[in-house]
Structures are given as C-alpha cells and as structure tokens.
Amino acid sequence: MKYVSRKYVDLIHAASSKWANWDPPHPIKVGDYGTIDKDTGGFEKEGNIYEYAATAALAANYPPETTAPDDEMVIASETAQKRHFSLGPQVNVSGVAEASIKGEWKFRSGKTGALLVMAKPRSSLMAVNAVLTNLVDLPALKDKYLVTETITCHAYSMYLSNKSEDTISLALLATVPIAVAPLSAGGNIGGGWWRETGAGVFRQGFASPETGADSFTPLFVLKRIRKKSYLSLSHRGMPSDPSDAEIEGDGFYVWEDVETPWQSLDEDGEEETFDAGVSG
Fold it and tell me: pTM for this structure?
C-alpha cells in the first residue's frame, strides 16, 4: 500500500478526532506549528510558539499542563471488533495471563482497519483561548496548524490490517521471556509486547514506565485559526468569553479542529474520485 501511513492516520482520525503519529518515537510537542503532508498524513513542524521570538514571552505565561496518566487508551476503527481475549493451548508465554494490558481484535474482510493501544497515556495541553487573541495576526501562523495537545506514553502498539479477515492479540508484559524478547524495543527483557497477528503492518515500542513515561507520542490534537461570520452562527454558537474570539469586521476568529486535507480514501489509502455525471 503506497499510502499506508495516510490510511492509518485517516482511520484513527475518524475514530477519535485526533491525529495519529505514524512514527511515535519522533517527538511532537505542544506549541509546535506547521502543516500536514497530504500524501503521508505526517505533521511537518515549522516552529514552536514557546521558542519563536515573536511568541515566546507570551507563551511562557501559559505553559502546557500535564494530566495524570490513565491506565490505557485504545482507539480502533469501526472495522475492528473487540473480542474476548483467551489464551489458546498454543500460547505458553509466561506473563501473558497477568499482563497489565491485553486484548484481541478481529478485522473485517475486504476492509482496512486500524488499532492503537497506549500504556499509561497522559495528556499535555495548552490553554488555547488564553493566547488566541495574541496569535491571530502573526504571519508565521497564517494558514498553519497548531499542536494544542499531545498524548504521550511509555509503550504503544499500532496495527493496520491489509483487508483480509484478520485477528490480532496483544499483551504488555512486565517481564519478557528471552524467547520473545526481540518483540520489545531493542530486545529489552525488562518488559515489552507479546503479540499474535496476521499479515498487516504492525509497529510497537516500549520503554521503562519509570524512566520513559513520555518516550512516545502516538497521538496529538491540531487546531487552526479560522474567521467566522456572525451571520453563520446562532445565538447559542456565539463565544461566551471574549478570550474565545478576536472580533474583527463582520466576524471573529476561532480555533477549529483541523480536518484531513484529502478527499475520502479507499481501502488502499488512495483518494476516491467521483464523477459528477451528465444530467439528461
């Protein structure tokens, strides 16, 4: 599949309204701004408001806030069905039954499906409304996307099926037997992923939960500034706080979620084309 990363990003975005990072070890930080590569779905950073000279002083007053970690986060496309996790007689790996995270998902035949599992994920997010009015006129941010939240973790597992009827089983082991140690990042026998899967694309990473809590960034949120007209909004849709919008002319600026820059994708990640047809 030529557009494997784009298809994965598209499916996770549809399931969560968040953006997937096809390369979770590659850092993405709150305050990064840039664009999305239309062919790969990857975020292309151009700068960071906490480092950019024109915004650094202001942004320093609103540092990102980090939440307490959850136990796990699972995002699956609608083509992935969660199933009861059971250990068959062929599974004799020590520690699977006691794994802190484990599950089994079945993927539908003829459809491409995506799965993302994160261990101890936690969010870092910025106070968007507090800095909006001071950012709308900056040339560097014109037509750019701003990372307003990141979800980091110490272990992740991601899978993209290949349109076959497929089942994937996963378990995050506290200690990995030497026989399966290569499945963890760098063959670390202190912990890692055990899996049984089919012919799709599988990627994973593991770092010690004590020292690598924020080693990976599998997920993030993008916002963009857009001007809206008063006439396009009902009374209910008007901003309730002046910091939510910068009034200018017959409208105001608001932060909006970034939509995917491609048309609907087929199962191979290609953009679908639609013939308008000729009316009689």
Answer: 0.84
